[in-house]
């Protein structure tokens, strides 16, 4: 089966398109994390979860999405394929701070540096350091042996490690 995790500003369209291409015979389960309205998304299965999160700032919704993403990647079977659809904005929509700081401390710090006009790439570097899932850490938590990433870039130099903070 192919399990689909999609997050970022273009996640809704990416998810719906992937699901259509995969088809019901091969689709396993899905987790869509978006900042868009999810009421019009049709589900063919109880194995799909749709979450609304926040953008451009981290919030409690981001934390819930981060926990859901960890549970999702850890619930795959070893022989499942994990298809991860990533677009810009995912670093705000999906957050899970390191144990040493609280969510409110992370929110305040990231908000302060964004308001201080720290450039986006540098903010993403800081987000990775303060995250339990960014910078490839979410992939390390996956129980699926095969992970396929499809990445839609809105990052100024299209650096994969900068898109959604390299999740």
Structure write-up:
- It is a single chain.
- The protein has 167 residues and is α/β, with parallel strands linked by helices.
- It has 6 helices and 5 strands; from the N terminus they run βαββαβααααβ.
- A 5-stranded parallel sheet has the order 3-2-1-4-5, sandwiched between helices.
- Strand 1 (2-7), helix 1 and strand 2 (27-34) form a beta-alpha-beta unit.
- The longest helix is centred in the middle third of the chain and has 15 residues, at 60-74.
- It is globular and about 50 Å long.
- The protein starts with a strand and ends in a 15-residue tail after the last strand.
- 37% of the residues are buried.
- The model has no long low-confidence stretch (mean pLDDT 88).
Summarize the structure.
This protein has 167 residues and is α/β, with parallel strands linked by helices. 35% of the residues lie in helices and 20% in strands. The longest helix has 15 residues, at 60-74.
SSE blueprint:
Elements: E1 2-7, H1 11-22, E2 27-34, E3 48-52, H2 60-74, E4 81-87, H3 90-93, H4 103-115, H5 120-129, H6 137-141, E5 146-152
Parallel strand pairs: 1-2, 1-4, 2-3, 4-5
- Radius of gyration, in Å, reads 15 Å
Strand order of the largest sheet: 3-2-1-4-5
Task: Give the number of helices.
Answer: 6
Mean pLDDT: 88
Task: Provide the succession of SSEs.
Answer: EHEEHEHHHHE
Helix content: 25-40%
Give the percentage of residues in beta strands.
15-25%
Pairing-aware structural class of the strands and helices?
Answer: alpha/beta
Residue windows where pLDDT falls under 50 for at least 5 positions: none
Terminal CA distance reads: 22 Å
| Most strands sheet | 5 strands, parallel
Shape: globular
How many E-type strands? 5
């Amino acid at each position: 089966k192919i399990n689909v995790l999609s997050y970022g500003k273009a996640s809704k369209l990416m998810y719906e398109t992937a699901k259509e291409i995969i088809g019901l015979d091969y689709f396993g389960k899905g987790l869509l994390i978006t900042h868009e309205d999810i009421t019009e998304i049709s589900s063919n299965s109880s194995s799909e979860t749709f979450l609304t999160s926040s953008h451009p700032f981290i919030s409690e919704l981001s934390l819930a999405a981060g926990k859901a993403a960890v549970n999702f990647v850890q619930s795959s079977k070893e022989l499942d394929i994990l298809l991860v659809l990533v677009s810009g904005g995912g670093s705000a929509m999906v957050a899970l701070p390191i144990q040493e700081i609280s969510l409110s401390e992370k929110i305040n710090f990231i908000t302060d540096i964004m308001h201080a006009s720290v450039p986006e790439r540098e903010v993403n570097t800081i987000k990775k350091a303060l995250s339990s899932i960014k910078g490839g850490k979410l992939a390390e938590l996956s129980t699926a042996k095969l992970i396929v990433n499809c990445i839609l870039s809105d990052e100024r130099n299209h650096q994969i490690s900068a898109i959604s903070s390299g999740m």
